[in-house]
UniProtKB/TrEMBL annotation:
Transmembrane segments: none
Record organism: Exidia glandulosa HHB12029
GO MF, one example: oxidoreductase activity
Pfam families: adh_short
Entry superkingdom: Eukaryota
Keywords: Oxidoreductase
Name the record gives this protein: NAD(P)-binding protein
InterPro entries xrefs: NAD(P)-bd_dom_sf, SDR_fam
Length: 342
């Protein structure tokens, strides 16, 4: 059984990661959400070095996305990267992104679901969900589910095993859902309530909760796809890295984070190696549904694996599906056709 400890965290942070293994991505389509900056951009640079048929940077800002495409070309010589608009704070934008791929009958080999937010104050999306929950969980889940038919079609057409990599975090070890929340009728509705999202929760725990939800989502989606599915879903912890996410942390924590960065943080490039490893390396059946860290299969927190964890996982999956079925009628069809194994 694995528990979080400061010693284990420091030892892993300071361990050298293996260099990225170059593979031939000719003809393949790679999508990186949040690919305009930070870990997403560094992962995109690694993918670009392998000359994929298409490399799509899915970003919420057209200006920053197009600038990233230009920068990528300058730094790598790869000139086929594309910007696509994707704002995970909006269900409509998420649906439109997938529908555009469907209209193109696009091949989709790898999706790295990297985009995330880390706000320290409470705000809601236009759909009424707290924005961290909207971006990091609900829209990420919607994107993942809506892409399943394209993944399956790609697998059948090209005899490949597409991969969906959900970027989670070792911070999921640092959060357990309060008993008071577990006793409420609807967990996800509780998570989005202003009462639950008090100042202390937003400053200290909100991001960690969202990453715990990523871990539960990965396990559920892989289970519902089943062991014979050609679609490989996993989640990856890139470690504590120098990242633009830190711009959203509370002012009171910035000094502490700066000190940690100086002594312990991986470079963004180093952190991106585990994203690329999760997308391209490892035996597909050994990384299916797994939590990956430091370019290897690791183990989720005891809270996820034991005790009430499996029941909470099922509850969160059922509630997420119930919410998303109201957002897109395709979710129910995909569930019945592709996600009925569990």
């Amino acid at each position: 059984m694995v528990k979080f400890s400061a010693w284990k965290f420091m030892r892993e942070q300071l361990a050298a990661l293996p260099p990225v293994t170059i593979v031939d991505l000719s003809g393949k389509t790679i999508i990186v959400t949040g690919g305009n900056t930070g870990l997403g951009f560094e992962a995109a640079k690694h993918f670009a070095s392998m000359k994929p048929g298409r490399l799509i940077l899915a970003c919420r800002s057209k200006e920053r996305g197009e600038a990233a495409v230009t920068k990528l070309g300058t730094e790598t010589g790869y000139r086929k990267a594309e910007f696509r608009h994707l704002d995970l704070d909006s269900f409509d934008s998420t649906i439109n992104f997938v529908e555009e791929l469907e209209r193109e009958d696009a091949r989709v080999d790898v999706v790295v679901a990297n985009a995330a937010v880390h706000p320290s104050t409470y705000k809601k999306s236009s759909h009424g969900w707290e924005s961290t929950l909207q971006v990091n969980h609900l829209s990420t889940a919607l994107l993942s589910i809506l892409l399943v038919p394209l993944f399956v079609k790609t697998a059948q057409t090209y005899s490949v095993k597409p991969r969906l990599v959900i970027v989670s975090s070792a911070t999921h070890f640092m959060y357990t859902i309060p008993e008071s929340a577990l006793k409420t009728p609807k967990l996800i509705e509780t998570f989005t309530s202003e009462k639950f999202c008090d100042e202390k929760h937003m400053a200290q725990d909100r991001y960690n909760l969202s990453k715990l939800l990523n871990v539960f989502l990965t396990r559920s989606l892989a289970s519902h796809l089943g062991p014979s599915s050609p679609v490989i879903v996993n989640n990856v912890a890139p470690g504590f890295c120098i990242s633009e996410l830190r711009r959203e942390i509370p002012a009171s924590a910035k000094r502490r984070v700066a000190i940690m960065e100086f002594f312990l943080a991986r470079t963004t490039e180093s952190g991106s190696r585990t994203l690329v490893w999760a997308a391209l390396q490892g035996d597909p059946d050994k990384v299916r549904g797994k939590y990956l860290s430091s370019c290897r299969v690791a183990e989720e927190s005891d809270y996820v694996l034991y005790g009430e964890g499996p029941k909470i996982e099922k509850r969160l999956w059922d509630e997420t599906i119930e919410i998303l079925e109201k957002v897109s009628p395709k979710v129910k069809d995909i569930e019945s056709q592709y996600l009925s194994h569990a």
